[in-house]
């Protein structure tokens, strides 16, 4: 792969803490290699800021392999930047060219308040899982793993839904800040497996109720979430959630 | 004297005997007992959830913004279990034996046998939780093979096994949180253990959002804080992985076991430049289907696909015909280094070898699919097309990751790979009950010195983390807490809490007041370079002695010239990192000391002074058949304690994979 270096202008959201007013700051970065990752470019900038006696930019990251779901930058108007099916940490600088201006903001949603600079609070997602995103089994001696055969196709679909990394890009992309793609991925993962069947009804109802309580908006089917999801979680999961939800509602009102 | 507390009796009955005879805590008393769990990876999440289910009051801590993001999430290839679903001759004994042998006879038989026994329960438990492991068309679970074994016992979920297992444990944890049995403290970092009357009774943690120090009481403290591979700066670990929790415990009296035992993984994406912040693993499972080679000619300028078959050196298949590409990691890593050092490396840096999928893509998968579809005499293009679909299902996420990082398509061109630091077999010394040398202080998962001896086999860390958390600690902690049921929670204004908090706060103030010129990152990079060059894949006495001096000098420089911007009472990632790097520097010195002391080669520890004529590692059982447990005695001062290892069942032989 041919590589090159570039000079860039960055416009980055700076905000001291949750209560302060934030604003954009402009930075010039030079000699950035096309082989760097986007976050390595931020490392370079931060080292320079420290050197100049300024405060480095706070951002969330950990695995830098696209799997922990921690990184979360809104780059040029798109969560995780320009590449398809990609996380911020896996975005590489060959996506940009010399002279580009890049605008970087935090996720914006009422349910994800900014903590500092590009870091937001996503604990609402944990509370949605607490509302029912599990199968109620204790550690112990369940049946032999092969006692419950699962159709391969269903197992594969459950896996595809379970691949969600809980990053919140779907919320950041949605004009209503809906978390439905995230919720539907978990509901689908568990509803598609026989082990998850006993709690299907309550799970869908409780998780959606918690989502509403956290202040996420409602879904108007724009599909913006699916387009930016780094794990290509399909919007068909939302359809499955809706039918689970309707079924659950019907069954509980028949009680 | 170190007492490993291995139960008496025949190897295969020890654990059953222990479970039948350990002390129990009744349900009413459990509710009065509080347990602190530091870490929410596979070890911590499984422990916290299981202990919460039993009725203990649990507090769990992690430094990420959610327990689901612990480094375990990144594990790729799979988890071992002696299920023998493939009918290929596997058994608990064989998994035990492979693990002992793979670890080059530097692990405890009793622990490893227990691990092999509970491995089967782990798979059952995870499936019950809804972990979507890969399945066959008949609906049953699928397996793949991993290095160092000749059976297929690895369960997997594409290249995302750690993610799926951790999500399972995380969901169990969140369920306990909803039920009020566990309270999770995210974005919190444990910075000290509080010891009262010789027993661990709590921790000091820093809230990473506000910078405030907090005191938390527990009748017992579990450290599940992961490994310390980031002491090398570049490793496959997540950026935040660190040794701080274990190091604080070490300085409070917990012995550190085999600190120099580091695993260098053979298949990682090579370094591309000075900006590199971490290295990315390409799962060992790829060695099932990828063949490793270099050109037979030095500095061959041709593109890999232009080099004909007979001009390629499949050096692992050549040197180790019995195991071929599936030799254990330490062996594969050294072999790659040997070829590159000899001038046969590839790529711009010449520090890489090829991992090539074309052969199996066509011959294994392509042909099998063609047969299934009834295509007779398929041409190569058809085989490639069909093979690609299967390879995509098995490893799609890994191939995508490779392409994103390198810009090359591994379905078409062989991957370029090189060894990188990956895992640490060393860690806090623990006895059979997972207790450190401090009473009531336990270590689980990668944080303990573990069951892997001098080298861990692939797919065995996930197994060990979950074994410790789901199936071992729920029993062993009861045996300790049963004597503690009368102990009331100790108020956190106790003088020991006061003193511990003051020590933490003083250290932070000192760090912030240095106001030097060099960034934390620059110190970390320099430490990493010393460690990689002198305590990395090959070590010798002279290099290690130099490294110790260099590290001491680096420590001085750090404490007089580090620059940490920002303030204490706010979110300050540079300050978090500074504390961790300061601990890594101290650990680095101990690792070199341990490597210097162990003048033999075993597993991942290769002392150049101790090798066979063919350049294979040479163990010295007469001198070093022990686990080294180091006691902290003060700055740059440690005392070595030896736990002699006895092998009653798996008799040590020179490891051979030929
Ligand atoms: C890329 C990669 C792939 C791997 N693939 C495999 C595989 O296929 N199969 C296999 O068996 N093994 C694999 N491993 C190894 C395996 O993933 C790890 O050994 C294992 O997950 C460690 O789990 P753990 O629970 O011990 O620690 P971790 O998952 O590292 O969790 C540590 C936890 O401790 C917390 N923590 C640490 N310090 C503090 C502190 N001071 N205060 C508060 N919290 C703290 C962290 O927040 C985190 O929650 C892989 C490793 C890597 C790097
Ligand atoms: S659904 Fe996709 S975008 Fe939303 S949290 Fe999950 S992985 Fe992220
Ligand atoms: S840092 Fe883990 S997904 Fe980006």
Question: Can you describe this structure?
Answer:
The complex is a heterodimer of chains A (255) and B (658). In chain A, helix 3 runs antiparallel to helix 5 (180-191) and helix 5 packs antiparallel against helix 6 (200-213). By secondary structure, chain A is an alpha+beta fold. The mean pLDDT of chain A is 96. The longest helix of chain A is centred in the last third of the chain and has 18 residues, at 236-253. Chain A is built from eight helices and seven strands. Chain A folds into two domains: 5-115, Ubiquitin-like (UB roll) (Roll); 123-253, Orthogonal Bundle (Fumarate Reductase Iron-sulfur Protein, Chain B, domain 2). Chain A has helices at residues 38-51, 123-130, 152-162, 169-173, 180-191, 200-213, 224-228, 236-253, and strands spanning 5-14, 23-33, 74-75, 78-79, 101-105, 114-116, 119-120. Chain A starts with a strand and ends with a helix. A five-stranded mixed beta sheet of chain A has the order 2-1-5-3-4. In chain A, strands 6-7 form a two-stranded antiparallel ribbon. Chain B has 658 residues and is of the alpha/beta class. Chain B has a domain at 264-421: Alpha-Beta Complex (Flavocytochrome C3, Chain A, domain 1). In chain B, helix 3 (42-54) links the parallel strand 1 (34-38) and strand 2. Chain B starts with 13 loop residues before the first helix and ends in a 14-residue tail after the last strand. The model of chain B has no long low-confidence stretch (mean pLDDT 96). Classes of the chains: A alpha+beta (255), B alpha/beta (658). Chains A and B meet through helix 1, helix 2 and helix 3 of A and helix 3, helix 5, helix 6, helix 11 and helix 12 of B. The structure holds flavin-adenine dinucleotide (FAD), iron/sulfur cluster (SF4) and FE2/S2 (inorganic) cluster. Iron/sulfur cluster is lined by residues 164-170, 181-182, 185, 229-231, 233 of chain A. Flavin-adenine dinucleotide (FAD) binds at residues 38-44, 61-64, 70-72, 74-79, 161-162, 188-190, 224-227, 236-237, 241-242, 244-245, 281, 283, 422-423, 445-447, 459-462, 465 of chain B.
């Amino acid at each position: 792969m041919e590589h090159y270096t570039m000079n860039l202008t960055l416009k980055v959201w700076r905000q001291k803490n949750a209560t302060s007013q934030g604003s954009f700051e402009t930075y010039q970065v030079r000699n950035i290699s096309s082989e760097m990752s986007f976050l390595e470019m931020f490392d370079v900038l931060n080292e320079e800021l420290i050197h100049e006696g300024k405060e480095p930019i706070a951002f969330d990251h950990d695995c830098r392999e696209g799997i922990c779901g921690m990184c979360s930058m809104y780059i040029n108007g798109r969560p995780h930047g320009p590449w398809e099916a990609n996380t911020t940490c896996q975005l590489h600088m060959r996506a940009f060219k010399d002279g580009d201006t890049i605008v970087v903001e935090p996720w914006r949603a009422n349910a994800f308040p900014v903590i500092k600079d590009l870091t937001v609070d996503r604990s609402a997602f944990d509370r949605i899982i607490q509302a029912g995103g599990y199968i109620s089994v204790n550690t112990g001696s369940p049946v032999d793993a092969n006692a419950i055969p699962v159709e391969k196709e269903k197992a594969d679909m459950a896996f595809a839904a379970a691949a969600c990394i809980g990053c919140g890009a779907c919320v950041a992309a949605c004009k209503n800040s809906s978390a439905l793609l995230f919720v539907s991925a978990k509901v689908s993962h568990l509803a598609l497996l026989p082990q998850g069947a006993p709690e299907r009804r309550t799970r869908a109802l409780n998780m959606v109720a918690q989502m509403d309580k956290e202040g996420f908006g409602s879904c108007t089917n724009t599909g913006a979430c699916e387009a930016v999801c780094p794990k290509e979680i399909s919007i068909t999961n939302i359809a499955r959630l809706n039918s689970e939800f309707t079924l659950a509602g019907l069954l509980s009102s028949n009680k | 004297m170190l007492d490993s507390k291995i139960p008496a009796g025949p190897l295969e009955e020890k654990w059953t005997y222990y479970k039948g005879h350990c002390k129990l805590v009744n349900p009413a008393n459990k509710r009065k007992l509080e347990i602190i769990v530091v870490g929410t990876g596979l070890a911590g999440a499984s422990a916290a959830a299981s202990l919460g289910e039993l009725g203990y009051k649990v507090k769990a801590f992690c430094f990420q913004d959610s327990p689901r993001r612990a480094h375990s999430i990144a594990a790729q290839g799979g988890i071992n279990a002696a299920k023998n679903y493939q009918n290929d001759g596997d058994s608990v004994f064989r998994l035990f034996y492979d693990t002992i042998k793979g670890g080059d006879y530097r692990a405890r038989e009793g622990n490893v046998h227990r691990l092999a026994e509970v491995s089967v329960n782990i798979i059952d438990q995870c499936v019950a939780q809804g972990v979507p492991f890969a399945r066959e068309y008949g609906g049953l679970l699928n397996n793949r093979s991993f290095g160092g074994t000749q059976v297929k016992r690895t369960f997997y979920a594409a290249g995302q096994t750690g993610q799926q297992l951790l999500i399972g444990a995380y969901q169990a944890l969140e369920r306990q949180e909803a039920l009020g049995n566990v309270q999770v403290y995210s974005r919190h970092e444990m910075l000290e253990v509080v010891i009262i009357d010789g027993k661990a009774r709590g921790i000091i943690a820093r809230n990473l959002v506000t910078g405030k120090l907090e005191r938390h009481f527990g009748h017992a403290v579990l450290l599940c804080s992961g490994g310390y591979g980031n002491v090398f700066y570049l490793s496959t670990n997540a950026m935040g992985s660190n040794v701080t929790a274990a190091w604080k415990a070490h300085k409070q009296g917990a012995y550190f076991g085999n600190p120099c035992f580091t695993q260098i993984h053979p298949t990682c994406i090579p370094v591309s430049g000075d900006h590199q912040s971490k290295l990315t693993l390409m799962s060992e499972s790829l060695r099932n289907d990828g063949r490793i080679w270099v050109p037979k000619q030095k500095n061959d300028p041709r593109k890999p696909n232009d080099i004909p078959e007979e001009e390629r050196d499949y050096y692992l298949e050549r040197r180790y015909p019995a195991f071929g590409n599936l030799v254990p990691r330490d062996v594969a890593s050294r072999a790659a280094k040997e070829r590159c050092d000899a001038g046969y490396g590839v790529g711009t840096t010449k520090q890489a070898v090829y991992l090539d999928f074309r052969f199996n893509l066509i011959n294994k998968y392509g042909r099998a699919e063609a047969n299934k579809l009834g295509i007779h005499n398929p041409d190569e293009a058809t085989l490639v097309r069909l093979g690609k679909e299967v390879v995509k299902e098995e490893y799609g996420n890994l191939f995508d990751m490779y392409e994103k990082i390198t810009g090359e398509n591994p379905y078409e061109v062989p991957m370029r790979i090189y060894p990188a630091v990956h895992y640490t077999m060393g860690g806090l010394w623990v006895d059979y009950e997972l207790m450190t040398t401090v009473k009531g202080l336990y270590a689980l998962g990668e944080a303990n010195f573990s069951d892997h001896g001098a080298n861990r086999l692939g797919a065995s860390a996930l197994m060990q983390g979950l074994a410790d958390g789901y199936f071992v600690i729920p029993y062993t902690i009861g045996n300790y807490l049963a004597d503690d049921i009368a102990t009331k929670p100790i108020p956190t204004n106790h003088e020991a809490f006061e003193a511990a908090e003051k020590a933490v706060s003083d250290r932070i103030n000192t760090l912030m007041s240095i106001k030097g010129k060099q960034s934390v990152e620059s110190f970390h990079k320099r430490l990493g370079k010393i460690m990689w060059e002198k305590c990395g894949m090959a070590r010798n006495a002279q290099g290690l002695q130099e490294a110790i001096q260099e590290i001491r000098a680096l420590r001085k420089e750090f404490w007089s010239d580090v620059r940490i911007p920002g303030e204490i009472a706010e979110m300050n990632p540079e300050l978090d990192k500074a504390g961790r790097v300061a601990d890594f520097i101290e650990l680095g010195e101990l690792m070199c000391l341990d490597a210097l002391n162990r003048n033999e080669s075993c597993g991942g520890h290769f002392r150049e002074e101790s090798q066979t004529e063919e350049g294979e590692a040479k163990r010295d059982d007469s001198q070093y058949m022990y686990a080294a447990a180091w006691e902290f005695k003060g700055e740059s001062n440690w005392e070595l304690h030896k736990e002699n290892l006895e092998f009653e069942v798996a008799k040590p032989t020179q490891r051979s994979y030929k």
